[in-house]
Amino acid sequence: MKYFVPFSFLFLLLAGNLQGQSLEDAQRWFSEGAYTEALPVFETALQSTHKNMVKKHIEIYPALGKIYFSLYQFEKSEAAYTKYAELLLSQRKAEAAAAVQGLIEQAGRAARMLSRCEDVQLIDSVIVDKNRFLKSYLLSSESGSLQEQNGRIIYENPLQDKRYYAEKKEGLGKRLFSEIKLQNDWEDKKELSIPSDSLADNDFPFVLPDGLTVYYASTDKSSIGGYDLYITRYNFHTNTWLAPSQMGMPFNSTANDYMMAIDEVNKIGYFATDRFQPEGKVIVYTFIPNEEFTPLETDDEQALIHRAQIVSIRNTWKPDVDYDAYLQKVRENIQNEPSQSQTNFTFVIDDRRMYHSLLDFKNDAARQAFRKAQEIEKTILQTEESLEDLRREYAFAADKKEQQNMHSLILSKEENLQSLQYQYKLFVKNARNYEQFRSVPGEEMLE
């Protein structure tokens, strides 16, 4: 007896077999990390009207969730993970469904973070070995210093009498600690009791000169990918650290992001990330910190994703800004900055204010004027020493001709010294007036 099988059923059966073969390929591609090849096959499978086939292959959903997440399509990722959890619950696998909840929440956080991507100017980038990335951080002495010792990153404050670092705590993850320098020894070790996931690693600290604001990286459960960047502040009123705020995109990504450092004097910042990098390499980005949060305004979803991922730093640049000159100026400022003994000074502004650091200045023009005065003061000292040497040589010159030549040189240096002393007084005056009045009445600053 012959049985008649409807053509439509044969078509579905054949399509199901072909789909099954394609899914095997897609699953292999997915396991190999070939997401772009696997994605269209998975998406096509979900469009199938054969519901039993979809239920049979519910592993498509977590795979799609991971692929969408890697592509910064976070809302689609959240939807895929949510559907997966629903299917698990329908199969009475409550424990497995609960385990997916963390992925759903992570995708949701990433989606919100993407929607508020910051419009920040990234002005330089360099790919370096992971174990040598600190060499790319150029900081003024007023910002403190970063160094690597025995496999851990240490931040030391501008006065070189306090340092911060991470250390593994028994039964927990890494925690941040501080120590103060008494004579030549580091003592008074204290933990920074920052609210955190107990098993998370907190590392890569950087402290602003106010001593109250700490940037660090953490693998906290709120992270969207390995290490994320966070910021916290110390509350003097309660003697506690505030709950940390997770930084947004483009600083954080689905990869590891860490070692945020900001030089407030030179208005420059750095952070490191291993996004798009091979094993053992990181990329260090240099950026101009915004004075206040500035969201990126665009209706182009792909442009938003590219800015969050940092596909190109040129996409972040503003028109008519010479970033090469900006970087060169920063490098010159740091290379030519006064010595440590000169950066800790006493400068009277008025009867109520006395400054001891460049960061005490509230007015940028005043800070630059005083910095210039410090540079001139250094030149004055060098010129005075040179004059003393010339005068000694003049006194013991072999003949009058040699004395005449040296006499002309001495007169020239004395004139130069007088000019330097005048400039020094003027820059000091300008610094004081700018800080007091925000301007110098009837007088322009020297350049």
Automatic annotation (TrEMBL):
Q: Does the keyword Manganese apply?
A: no
Top-level taxon in the UniProt lineage: Bacteria
Q: Where is the signal peptide?
A: 1-20
Q: Which SUPFAM superfamilies match?
A: TPR-like
Query: Is Nucleotidyltransferase found in the keyword set?
Result: no
Q: Which of UniProt's keywords are assigned here?
A: Coiled coil, Signal
Kindly list any coiled-coil regions of this protein: 373-407
Q: What is this protein called?
A: Tetratricopeptide repeat protein
